[in-house]
Amino acid sequence: MAKPSFDEIFMNLALELAERSHCVKAHVGAVLAKDTRIISIGYNGPPSGTHNCDQEWPIEGCARDSKGSCSLALHAEENAILYAVKNGAGLLGATLYTTLSPCLPCARLIYSAGIIKVFYKYSYASYKGLSSDEGVDFLNKFGVEAVQFAGN
């Protein structure tokens, strides 16, 4: 029996973490790893200690901002990066596994954090009806390898 690769394990964990999301609109999970070890995990939802959208607003979700995005939620990548930083974990050279390709603001955060590779399962552009994955384009342009996950 073939053993799963660490890339498959981490992406599967990201997919399972997405199921923890309290967002009414989308469920996204993320795993930060380095040298076959997990640094941090995250999923999209409101900051800890605030409202859970699926409990507070189960039908429509939280209020929208001027661009039509959730006004309360943090993205899965943001939650994973913030938790790592809050706990003193070094992200330089890390790999991010996420179920949805990063949006442009998350891509800027990923780049600034020193993450060197991003695997994503699904396209943010397809999800949002956009012509291109701006976050992926940004990351690849500035030397962070961002690729759609081909495993399982």
UniProtKB/TrEMBL annotation:
GO terms for molecular function: dCMP deaminase activity; zinc ion binding. Keywords: Hydrolase, Metal-binding, Zinc. Residues 5-133 form the CMP/dCMP-type deaminase domain. The active site is at E77 (proton donor). InterPro entries: APOBEC/CMP_deaminase_Zn-bd (IPR016192), CMP_dCMP_dom (IPR002125), Cytidine_deaminase-like (IPR016193), dCMP_deaminase (IPR016473), dCMP_deaminase-rel (IPR015517), Deoxycytidylate_deaminase_dom (IPR035105). It comes from the Bacteria. GO terms for cellular component: cytoplasm. CDD domains: deoxycytidylate_deaminase. Zn(2+) binds at H75, C103, C106. GO terms for biological process: pyrimidine nucleotide metabolic process. Transmembrane segments: none annotated. Its cofactor is Zn(2+). Belongs to the cytidine and deoxycytidylate deaminase family. This is dCMP deaminase. It comes from Olivibacter domesticus. The lineage of its organism: Bacteria, Pseudomonadati, Bacteroidota, Sphingobacteriia, Sphingobacteriales.
